[in-house]
Structures
1.
Amino acid sequence: MKTKIFIVSSIFTISAVIFIVKLFFLQVIDTSYKLSAENNALRHITKYPVRGKIFDRNGKVLVSNKAYYDLKVVPRSLSEFDTVEFCKLINISKEDLIKKIRRKRHSYQAIIIKKQIEDIEFAYIQEQLFKFPNFYIEKRTLRDYNELTAAQLLGYSAEVSGEDLKRDDYYKPGDFIGKSGIEKKYETYLRGEKGEKIFVVNVHGSVQGIYKNGKYDKEAVAGKDLISTIDVELQKYGELLMQNKIGSIVVIEPATGEILAMVSSPTYNPDLFVGKKLSKNYRRVEKQKGKPLFDRALRSMYPPGSTFKLVNALIGLEEKVINKRTVFITDGYDAGTHIVGDHISGLVTFQKSIQFSSNAYYCHVFKRIISNKKYPDYASAYEEWKKYVQSFGLGISLNTDLNFEKKGILYSSTYFDRYYGKRHWNYNTIISLAIGQGELGFTPLQSANMISAIANRGYYITPHVIKKIVGDTIAKKFTEKHFTKVKPEYFEPVIDAAELVVSAGTGFSAYLPGLDICGKTGTAQNPHGIDHSIFVAFAPKKNPKIAISVYVENAGYGSTWAAPITGLMIEKYLTNKITKTWQEKRIIKADFINKK
Amino acid sequence: MSDKISKNKIDLISIGIYLLLVVLGWMNIYSSAYDGSSFEFGSRYGKQMIMIAMTFVILLILLFVDVNIIFSASYFVYGFVLLALIAVLFLGDKTGGSRSWFEIGSFKLQPAEFAKLATALALSRFLGKENSNFTFDIKSFVSVLGIVFFPAFLILLQGDLGSAMVFSSFIFVLYRQGLSFYWFPIILIGILVFVSFFFINISLIFISLIIIGLISYRYITGNLKDTIFGAALLVIMILIGLAIIIFFRANIKVNIIITVSVFIVSLIVVVKSFKEMILKSLIVPVLLLFYIGSLYSTGYIFENILKSHHRARINVLFGLEKDLTDIGYNVHQSKIAIGSGGLSGKGYFKGTQTKYDFVPEQDTDFIFCTVGEEWGFVGTAFVITIFTVLLLRILFLAERQRSVYSRVFGYSLAGVLFFHYSVNIAMTIGLFPVIGIPLPFFSYGGSSLFAFSVLLFVFLKLDTQHNTLYI
């Protein structure tokens, strides 16, 4: 009997010892539970920073923010409420409400019942919300576009995607992130820094007070404001001129590389992509005629056409295969298999070759460059020529502060080796490069940069759209000069000829007295239809203030459409008034999208 | 009837601990509901206070009741409670998937709480009538099992698994009254087999059982030759079975082969035992077959009889499921609350986990969390210590009873109290599945407090006449 009593007592005592030991580990040794307890009873409310604003170069607001409100609830905290009245108040169907809540009904994490409620509706809801104490409002901000312009350039911001979340752990679901344009490129400056407010809550999520009197709270830091290089008036004028046309305008200030305007047409209303409007409008805009989401200024690659003759002329001079007195007697150019046609014939001087855009002249120049005895073979001469072209920022990535810029098409000699066979090609095989056709493709931005380098007589500064970050500095690369392989003294004869192009040549429709515009027309051959009209120009001739490239797709010769648009843009920027109003009217009225 | 009356003083140590537990319990209920507002009688701590007062009044009355009345009313109380248990099945209030409450006005009564008292009374009365060992008489043995398991069965029908399991605590009584100690390893192995069912490949359990069986057989009979012969026979039969599976690509499960082999060898052992009249060697094959049978039935019960929330709780306990928001949430939150208390706790009224309702049912089944969070390790160790002191005190008192009736009642009380307190604490610290039984004297709830108090005080009243013999 004694043993039985002993055993029962032992069971009681040993259990007690086991409990006490376990509790000792749980309460004294293991500290992880204390941390969990804090997370349990504290609610960390994110304070969203205001996204940085974007200004134009003259201080006009391009993008700012407006407040909106999210209606949230912690599903697990929900007690019974009048669903009918609630649904009527926030204007959603009962099924939607039930679906939203049911999916997360065990969640202690707040879910959004209705997002992005705007001011007027918010005021109405807030008045009635006291009847539904479990629901609360969280303030956020959304983009507000003061000027409905430069949509592709500015880009848009939207809720982070799963990929964004994986890539950067700064973001939490529901945060906003720049998706394209400046919004994307300058995301880290614009987003600011999220703050945090810590509340003590009970299990129903109702706030019991502020944790430690706000000792650990953190204020949100607003995003940095950006001052862009864009001149909003010029930008809007460019968009007006380009309406109902497919193409683009890129305007650069040569001395600084600052992009004054960058139009890609057709464009869209940036306000369509704000907040919840995005999902409704994105597909529709994406599919619109002319594909407005495609930023032609950066991504469309066109053969440069005759505008490229400026580059070949400069290379010819630098390589000393021609000089400014070189004359060719032309009647087209016999490339062996075919004749390159020309619109002028007879005695063509260097000046006239540019002024009237002689094809044959540049075929001869190109032939001399490629067959230059300085180089052991055509391929190495071609490689040298290619380096010249690249020194103008053509066929290479410019490394701007814009997204998705294309590098262009400029093949190396090995491409022709593969295509025609090694040593089975010569200057005649690739003669179309002489006049900017064939295996070439440059973006409007690269063309504008090229003419800007010519305006600067031999250098360019990497084009960029942001000139200042308030409270920070822009990258050093946007102040550095990139010199061309052509020395400054060879530019003058080319520029003199380019001036004649406008004052008495193919680009006459861009002529404006007193502005000293230098330019060059071009026509990009389009195998799919009517050719594209191109014009590049800068002005004034001395101390150029503006360099510009204009592309109008399917519009025929450069002189008919691109040149007058260039003239109007230059006049608008330099004098802020328009003298050729009849031309302005004609261009605004022209419609290449809707009628053939 | 008593043959001799001798009055002793009521045991003040037990009463002291009892009062301490009730007061501490109420303080913790108050703290878990405390929100800074003034005292309200309509709140849960207010109601509990009224309940405590009412219980005290009844306990006072109880102290003046003649012990003989208690003795003679034993079977009557048992019968009455059985009726109530049956009635509640049909008339009860349905809460949380089980039908176990009577609602009388604003009060709720849970007959299951009183069933423990009633069973203790009836068992004491039955075992107290003779001083012989009930295990020697098959009729008595079955009656004892009936007295214990019938109310447990009715409670199980209500869907209250936790309260039904409490009746297993009467094992202490049966042990004290003659059940062999060998039953403990048998039950222990049974529990191990049951638990390992959830972790280990069932064939592995079978093989472990066979090895344990062979060793026990060698130990019990002392016959090494037979043991080796049996082992060899088993191995050969299992190998043959495996060969059949491999060569004939027969669709037979390995478990079935092992089972059949064990069955055949067991049969040989049984026949041999009867032939040689060595009956004690019977126990090995019988138990082996019993365990294997129960393994099969465990699978069946688990899949078909247990409710999904029981299954989920078992799975969570064994770590087979990790769902911290649903079923595992209770235990997880409870461990956070207790663990965050540290050595000396956050201080009275300062618990965040319990106060802000993170711990579910923090004033009933999980009241121990409030203790752990606000009073820390010091508090939890203290509560466990005084419970243990009370239990040992009850054992001591039970042993000084002259009458078997009183002693059995004392052991019933100790067993039920031990089961409740240990399982409740074990589940709050994650050592046992959450089966939802209250911490005696601590948890909010009138029925529980009242039933435990009466259970204790009936015994203390019996103890005042511990020299009396009831037949």
Note: Residues 74 and 121 of chain B are 5 Å apart (CA to CA).
2.
Amino acid sequence: MKRYTLLAGFVLAALGAAWAAHAADAKIEALARSCNSCHGLNGVSVGASMPSIGGLSESYLYNVMLQWKHGERYSATMGRHFKGYSDEELAGLAKHFSALPWVPVVQSADARVLAHGKEATERCETCHGATGGQPDDKDTPMLNGQWAKYLELELMKYRTEGVDMPHKKMRKNAQKMGEDADVAAAAKYYAAQPK
Amino acid sequence: MPIDRRDFLTSSAAALTAAVLPRTAAAKPHAAQPHVVVVGAGFGGATCAKYLRLWDPGIQVTLIEPNPHFTSCPMSNWVVGGFLDFDYLVKRYDKLPKYGIRMVRDRVTGVDGEKRLVHTQGGEKIAYDRLVLAPGMEFMTEKVEGYAEGAKAGKVMHAFKAGPETLLLRKQLEAMPDGGVFIIASPPPPGRCVSGPYERASVAAHYFKQHKPKSKIIMLDGHIDVVSKGPMFKAAWKELYPGMIEHRPNNLAVGFDHRTMTVRTEFEDQKGDVVNIIPLQRAPQLCKDAGVRNDALDRWCRVDFTTYESTSVPNIHVVGDPIMSNMPKSAHVSNNQAKIAAAAIIELLHGRQPDPVPVIGSTSYSVTSDHTSGSIAVVMRYDPVKKVYQRQPEGGANKTHSEIEFEYGRSWHENMWADTLG
């Protein structure tokens, strides 16, 4: 009986140590599960205004989350979420989602809208690439196969005075886009790109 | 991409654990493939079944649900407001079997916690290693004298489980003459979707404003105030529907006479043309029969908040509405509790320690018209010392509604249904 207790004690101690060893990763996994509810399994959204986040770059995700946490970026809901997490947890979540594959959700649009969108996105090409799928640095998000409604809402935030969107270059370029119809077409153009 | 949590321990430690840990903590020695039975395929149950299979394909999962389809309560007020077809709320269960879940269309009539058996109306006896109860809630209609007779006569409904009553309420609002009175009587918490009645008042006002502008909405509220999203709702009502919604707090409905269409509260009688009474709620009878409806008032189920295992019957877990906790009884909370329970069940079946400090993130949107919404966003962390989920600072409800949140809210539903069902 004594031996049994000792052995059980040893196993429980080993379990505790094992938990501690993997706890960091497991904890991030556990936190990430909660994100699925709105951003989809593996960060692939099925809702038109909710962005896919799986496969976006670690640095982009982490920066945006910190901006929300510190109230530097316009937020509908995410700021209130991220204030509830430590910076380490946010870094872990950024790493977790960036390690997943980017899965474009290709949304069709008619040829005229796509041609209009292609034209409207000329000034976006330098940083995002011709189809939005070739970002020039680690801080630039993928746009190909992102949800059109989401992209449109984001662009409108960059275009609206008084809405806090910290990226100056994006503000400038979004405001140069002309009509709101150009914004919608640009969003639909990226949403239609598989690569 | 299923996450194989078995990597966390070396195989030798796992083998040792299985051999030594008491049976309650380890998988049954003879169970090569442990069997988890989940009762109820709503936001809690379907999510739990799906994630059990995603994270550990070595577990057999049976999901028992009497209804042929899923009907979403979130968004059902859009139908009441007349800007969504009811059919949109109805979703198929056809994707769940693809995860290897055995779906059984039947009603559970009893649970034998000692023999670990579930009895169904269809006469099946299903054995389980672990059972998850996710049956939602039931109404304490007996607390509103005359409710049963009124409901039978089609003169009152709760419309707080999406279904025929949602359509009945819509029909009655359509038939109501301009200048009529619509009464919404709602209970104090705890209960399902505390902001639901205020959202309902908003969508009804949205409809009246366009078609019956002389009409009035009287809220007989058992709660002390518009507590959930209060400032947001009050601001939206003032802006969009001035003078149309009258909120009377501390005014719990205790009776209804369908012949005179009069609601009796603890303080007054109020006559209405359309009457919607949402009675107090409790964990369903099934939970009582299983021995897990164990709080002092015989209303809710107490659970261990790291595993969602009942505090009174081992191997029975409860998720969603039936739980006694400080968490909202909402779709998002049920969905996330189900994931925590699924992860914990996998750990327990493998004789490992579940996450001791789970975290739940929750967002809830309420529409204020057919194009505006407000929201609550909170993160709740389990505090193992105080044994409660603590709301993290600076979360909560926003004070204003907006068009962009209506857009986000719409997609919240799409993703929530997908995360739960497919």
Note: The radius of gyration of chain B is 22 Å.
